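FAQ: What does the model actually see?

It sees only this:
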Amino acid sequence: MITHAITGETASRFARLTLGHIGQEYPNMLMHMLAGPDDARTPSELHPIFYGSFDWHSCVHGWWQLLRLRRLFPEMPEADAIIERADAMLMPENVAGELAYLARPLARGFERPYGWAWLLALHGEATLHDASWASALEPLARAFADRFRAHLPHLTYAIRSGAHFNTAFALALALDWARKHDVALAELIAERAPGWFGGDRAAPAWEPSGDDFLSPTLTEALLMSRLLDAPAFARWFDAFLPETAVERPATLFTPAHVSDRSDGKIAHLDGLNLSRAWCWRGIAAVLGEGHPATVAAGAAAERHLTASLPHVEGDYMGEHWLATFALLALEEPVSR
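And it is asked to produce this:
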């Protein structure tokens, strides 16, 4: 039974939270390689748009979250503030500054692949609004799509970590964007991902690690659910996690315990609970009501939401990003 859902009140709370930090420059954790003393610059000098929210990628998906909330709840009190901030920030001059950073010789691997994927998701969301934001962001989205197309053929092995370098998570976001905006990238993902994941069987689910915010097991399954038609996915899933109906491996059904939410790495585990909920709900939607794993998947999603949804705010180490993952988890998944 699904008891958690996004409401107007929750949307407003998330929007207020994110509006408060997308322009907050400090504290800031830069992913920045210096080639010389002239490269020692402030976050806002380096990144005219995405200098807030503690780090570049959190600022990107904070903007995704705000635009999405504005579209889903156009009458919410914060909608005008979102439009005003977006009009001021998501403009060609600022995008040119972000592109200039990418053109630096040492920026080839900047934010690969997590930030790349979230920028594509932001652009995809912007295209759904009657505003100039998508056209302004398009050159940046194209630059990251080019990087995906150059990188994926050289990626011999998928990265199966539980954090920013995870391949499956990035490809799940990138695939959604590419199917509408870059057919060549969508085809490349459809070609490469089955080679990495298609033969996986009886996943042991040795997780979580101490600072995971993604489930390597479930993000892989979510990606495959988006690549395969429903019957083919059910066959793959039954071999990949054959004991889901009886809630094994137990680690995937047990929310992670967060011992210290002021520790940025340990606070990642709240994100793990929220992203697992997102994955379980998406997987269940594709499997459908008749599949024996669906009830267990839905129950697992609810447990994970109950564990971490109350902790989206309270300490900046979590609140600069967790609302994005809460929104992913609370949105109604698309069934087939």
